[in-house]
C-alpha cells in the first residue's frame, strides 16, 4: 500500500530533550516536506527536500533540523525542544515529474507536546 | 510572496443543500491551486487542483472548484452536501507545480442531517 508513515504518532517530552520524528514513504517520491499545524494558523511549512541531499527552509524553520540521506526517509530533528514547538506535525511527499503538480501525500501526523 | 485567504472559519449547511467554501489567493504569476481535506485525526487528502485550461475543475467525492482569475478566487463547491463531507478544508497555492505550497488557515465544514 502506498503510504507515508510517521513515528511516533504521539509524544510528550520535556524542554531541551532532543527528539527525532521519523518519516518514510514507499512511493519513490523525490519531494518531501514537513509541516506543523496549529489552530487558527493552518499548515506552515518547516523544511522541504527536492531530492536526496537537497534540503531547504520553509516558512518556520527555527528550532528544527532535517536530513535527506535516503530517498524514502526525511526525519525531523528537534535538538532542544521548547513549549512553543508543541504542535501537530505532518510529513508529506510527492513526485516532481511532469504532471504531478504538488499532489502531496500526507502522513497521519505526530502530536508533540513539550512540557 | 504568495498567500491564501479562507475568509470563513466555519461553514454550516444542511444535508442535500449546495455548499461553497471560499478561497482567494495572491501570487505573482500564474497560480497552481489546490484543495485538500482533513478528516478528524487524519492527515490531509488531495481533493482537486487547477493548473491551466478549463476554469471549472472536478475532483474527488463530487467536489468541484471554479477558478476566477479576475477575482483571484478558487471556491470549492458541491451541488448536494453529505453529512460525511464534514471536515476541515484547506486551499493552497504555489507558483509552479513543484515549489512551496502555501496553505490557507482552513475552513471547517459542518453538514447537518
Count of DSSP helices of chain A? 0
Using DSSP, what is the number of strands of chain A? 11
β-strand number of chain B: 12
Name the quaternary structure.
heterodimer
Question: Main beta sheet of chain B, described?
Answer: 6 strands, mixed
Q: How much strand of chain B?
A: over 45%
Q: What kind of sheet is the major sheet of chain A?
A: 7 strands, mixed
Average pLDDT value of chain B?
Answer: 92
Using only C-alpha atoms, the radius of gyration of chain B works out to 13 Å
The secondary-structure element order of chain A is EEEEEEEEEEE
Distance between the termini of chain A: 36 Å
Helix amount of chain B: under 10%
User: How big is the Rg of chain A?
Assistant: 13 Å
Measure the end-to-end span of chain B: 41 Å
Residue runs with pLDDT of under 50 for 5 or more positions of chain B = none
Question: What's this model, at a glance?
Answer:
By secondary structure, chain A is mainly β.
Keywords:
heterodimer; A: 115 residues; mainly beta; 7-stranded mixed beta sheet; 4-stranded antiparallel beta sheet; 50% strand; globular; B: 113 residues; 6-stranded mixed beta sheet; 12 strands; 0% helix
Please tell me about this protein's structure:
The complex is a heterodimer of chains A (115) and B (113). Chain A is mainly beta and 115 residues long. Helices cover 0% and strands 50% of the residues of chain A. Chain A is built from no helices and 11 strands. In chain A, the strands form 2 sheets. In chain A, strands 2, 4, 5, 6, 9, 10 and 11 form a 7-stranded mixed sheet that branches. The relative contact order of chain A is 0.33. Chain B has 113 residues and is mainly beta. Chain B is built from no helices and 12 strands. Chain B is globular and about 40 Å long. Helix content of chain B is 0%, strand content 51%. The chains are: A mainly beta (115), B mainly beta (113). The interface between A and B is medium-sized, with 27 and 23 residues.
Amino acid at each position: 500500500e502506498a503510504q507515508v508513515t510517521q513515528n511516533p504518532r504521539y509524544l510528550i517530552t520535556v524542554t531541551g530533550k532532543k527528539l527525532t520524528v521519523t518519516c518514510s514513504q514507499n512511493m519513490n517520491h523525490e519531494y518531501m516536506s514537513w509541516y506543523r499545524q496549529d489552530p487558527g494558523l493552518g499548515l506552515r511549512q518547516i523544511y522541504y527536500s527536492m531530492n536526496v541531499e537537497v534540503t531547504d527552509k520553509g516558512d518556520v524553520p527555527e528550532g528544527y533540523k532535517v536530513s535527506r540521506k535516503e530517498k524514502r526517509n526525511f526525519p525531523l530533528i528537534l535538538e532542544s525542544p521548547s513549549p512553543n514547538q508543541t504542535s501537530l506535525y505532518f510529513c508529506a511527499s510527492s513526485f516532481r515529474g511532469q504532471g504531478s503538480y504538488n499532489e502531496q501525500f500526507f502522513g497521519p501526523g505526530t502530536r508533540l507536546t513539550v512540557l | 510572496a504568495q498567500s491564501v485567504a479562507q475568509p470563513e472559519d466555519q461553514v454550516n449547511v444542511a444535508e442535500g443543500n449546495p455548499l461553497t467554501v471560499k478561497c482567494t489567493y495572491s501570487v505573482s504569476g500564474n497560480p497552481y491551486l489546490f484543495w485538500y481535506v482533513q478528516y478528524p485525526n487524519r492527515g490531509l487528502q488531495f481533493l482537486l487542483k487547477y493548473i491551466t485550461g478549463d476554469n471549472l475543475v472536478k475532483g474527488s467525492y463530487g467536489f468541484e472548484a471554479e477558478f476566477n482569475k479576475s477575482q483571484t478566487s478558487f471556491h470549492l463547491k458541491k451541488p448536494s452536501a453529505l453529512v460525511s463531507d464534514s471536515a476541515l478544508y484547506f486551499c493552497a497555492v504555489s507558483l509552479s507545480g513543484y515549489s512551496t505550497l502555501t496553505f490557507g488557515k482552513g475552513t471547517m465544514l459542518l453538514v447537518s442531517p
